[in-house]
Amino acid sequence: MVPLSQAELDTFLHVFWAKRAAITDHIHAATGGVVQFGPFAGTRLARESSWGDGDIAAKLLGVYEQELHATLAGFARRRYAAIVNIGCAEGYYAVGLARLFPSTPVLAFDVSEAAQRITRANAAENGLGDQVSAAGFCGAEHLASLGARYETMLCVIDCEGFETELVTPAALAGGLKGCDFLIECHDFTKPGITNSLLAVLASSHEVVNLVSGGRDPNVFACLSGFDDIHRWLAVNEVRPCIMNWLAATARQEVRPE
User: Fold this and answer.
1) Cα–Cα separations (whole angstroms), residue 160 to 19, 141, 168, 178
2) Hey, is 84 helix, strand or coil?
3) Average pLDDT, the chain
4) For residue 256, is pLDDT > 60?
5) Total domain count for the chain?
6) Could you tell me if residue 255 is inside a domain?
7) Strand pairing of 153-157 and 132-135?
8) What does pTM read for this prediction?
9) 3-state SS string over 141-192?
10) Residue 66 located in a structural domain
11) Cα–Cα distances in Å, from 209 out to 19, 71, 160, 180, 238?
12) Which of 71, 125, 150, 228 could form a disulfide with 82 if both were Cys (CB 3.0 to 4.6 A apart)?
């Protein structure tokens, strides 16, 4: 494959993001800003994003990270004292999980002040402003202290490679051993992250590695008037590689009653 020059790449990306913006506007209007399918169906999302375009189109269609849907349904059958979402972006998971777990406090964290603001706004729009909080940086010590405080906790982590600094043997021993995890692994930032976390969690958790799958944009009526390229733009999550997510449930012998 002949690589693109920088000028060619810049032109391509300019057109790509402009087309994506138009598609996202269309989907937001067609759905009324309400997630259509998946475990978070019915959640209201603002058009605003805190990074890139936030994959708002895929989120509203309900195909965003659809590899995790069955796992989320399984977690929804469990009870937690709290849910922690590190790297909350616009609050898609924080607000969606608050709807899945009524009255369970959801503690969202993101280093982006825009992400914190949009998460609060989305929580309020869904009537969950008192259930969802949004704060800044959460390090390993803070996360472990939350695990010790709440004991039964679900941690949803998406923090661009920092996951190996959060989920460590010391953190598990310090309060996270009885918590469940859903972790996006960013191996493209640091090769070996998935295997490293698998090793860390192996002694205390049952771990399933979930791998990127396909999407079918042709099932959505609101995209039926678009050509193939634009339909695929709607569900494209612009991943740099095939992704891995680790779904880890604490073994019964270490999970608090």
Assistant:
1) 26, 18, 16, 24
2) strand
3) 94
4) no
5) 1
6) no
7) unpaired
8) 0.94
9) HHHHHHHHHHCCEEEEECCCCCHHHHCCHHHHHHHHCCCEEEEEECCCCCCC
10) yes
11) 33, 11, 18, 14, 21
12) 150
pLDDT at position 255 is: 59
**Local structure of 139: helix, strand or coil:** coil
Alpha-carbon span 212 to 72, nearest angstrom:
16
Instruction: Give the DSSP H or E segment for 209.
Output: strand 205-211
CB 95 within 8 A of CB 122: yes
- Res. 89: pLDDT tops 60: yes
What angle do the packed helices 92-100 and 113-125 form, to 10 degrees? 30
82-86 and 153-157 as β-strands: parallel, antiparallel, unpaired?
parallel
Residue 207 domain-assigned (yes or no): yes
Residue among 167, 170, 165 nearest 179 (CA): 167
Q: 98 pLDDT exceeds 60?
A: yes
Q: The domain spanning residue 88 has which CATH number?
A: 3.40.50.150
Angle between helices 228-235 and 6-31 (to 10 degrees): 80
pLDDT in tens, 161-197: 999 999 999 999 888 999 999 999 999 999 999 999 9
- What is the domain range of residue 108? 6-250
Give residue 149's pLDDT. 93
Place of tokens 């849910």: 83
Look-up of token digits 């209201």:
44
pLDDT, tens digit (0-9, with 9 covering 90-100), for 117-137: 999 999 999 999 999 999 999
Q: Is residue 256 part of a domain?
A: no
